[in-house]
């Protein structure tokens, strides 16, 4: 099986996990200890992909 076919499901799983952690920390009043930012789109070599592409 090609690895690129696994990317969408892996991304969904990661996002679900992060939101569950955020909800857990929110219910335990530790919201200030968790910060979630946006990831940058990068090529495999690490260069940032232009948003105007």
UniProtKB/TrEMBL annotation:
It is found in: Nucleus. Its main location: nucleus. GO terms for biological process: DNA repair. Pfam families: FancD2. One of its GO terms (cellular component) is nucleus. InterPro entries: FANCD2. Keywords: Isopeptide bond, Nucleus, Ubl conjugation. Signal peptide: none annotated. Belongs to the Fanconi anemia protein FANCD2 family. This is Uncharacterized protein. It comes from Vitis vinifera.
